[in-house]
Amino acid sequence: MQRPFVLLAALFLVLWAQAAACQERVVLAGTGDGQEVFEHLARAYMRAYPDRAVDVPPTVGSSGGVRCAAAGTCDIARLARPLRDKELRFQLEYRPLGRVPVVFASHPGVKVARLTRAQAVGVLSGGITNWKALGGPDHRICVVQREASEAPQGALSAYLTELADHVPVGKVAYEAGEALADIADNEFSFGIVSLPAARARGLNILWIEGLEPDASGAVRPDYPLLMTHGLAWLPEPSPAARRFLDFALGPEGRAALAELDILPVAP
User: Fold this and answer.
1) How many CB atoms lie within 10 A of CB 58?
2) Cβ contacts of residue 20 below 8 Å, gap of 6+?
3) Residue 3: C-alpha distances to residues 9, 12, 14 (Å)
4) I need a labelling partner for 9 at 20 to 30 A (CA). Which of 26, 30, 62, 100 fits?
């Protein structure tokens, strides 16, 4: 009785392997700050086209993604920023996907939901060191910041210009996953992350007063803390890569990104 079952199982595995081998596949390498965004976009694409696959491997950074795309070791680079001047030598095509909100976040155990701009500056400059000053528990604030060259920190610096002359306080996380883990694992943490990442991890979001979502929960169209996510690729991409690009940069991709409250690229 077992032999027909074994043969049937073996046949299924062979057919599955053949189908997987024939499946059209595109690899997106790059930033970890957009991991949730690009994974969401990949899932939307594969739902629409089940015979196609998109891989979003662990982060190598935006710069690493550019190098991979230029070397042909990935199909498309995923970036949390536009191309830098020094990267133009690779002669990659680049298109922005959308503007991703950057938010202040804490461990979900801290229930502070609002803070003023002055309070945000105070925490990040070291002038405010206890959650009690923000209406939270009587405990030291564990600040998590990012390197100045990283996209979330750039968005923060562009908005809170008062911090220009201040030395960053707290721990510096060197990539998105590290920052998220530091905030998620420390009950008294305070840091900056993308809105999709904060929601995916169930973090507590602290909105600056006046910048809260509207009554429907959608992010305001004039929200100022933003980083631009985009895609870069070699001219004349493969047919598989071109099909994904057409989806991602077209109305279907924009609709998928809007589900994460990602704002459209400014005209």
Assistant:
1) 9
2) none
3) 10, 14, 17
4) 26
- From the list 57, 55, 64, the residue with the least C-alpha distance to 24 is 55
245 closest CA partner among 16, 34, 14, 41: 41
Domain shared by 153 and 237, yes or no: no
Q: Is residue 196 domain-shared with residue 231, that is, in the same domain?
A: no
CA 88, 92, 93, 94 torsion-angle sign: negative
| Secondary structure element (H or E) that encloses residue 95, with its range | strand 93-106
Domain encompassing residue 158: 101-208
Are residues 88 and 112 part of one domain?
Answer: no
Rounded Cα gap, residues 16 and 85, in angstroms:
45
Residue 265 inside a domain? The answer is no
| pLDDT tens per residue across span 3-14 | 543 343 334 333
Residue 28 contacts residue 2 (beta carbons within 8 Å) = no
12 and 94 belong to one structural domain: yes
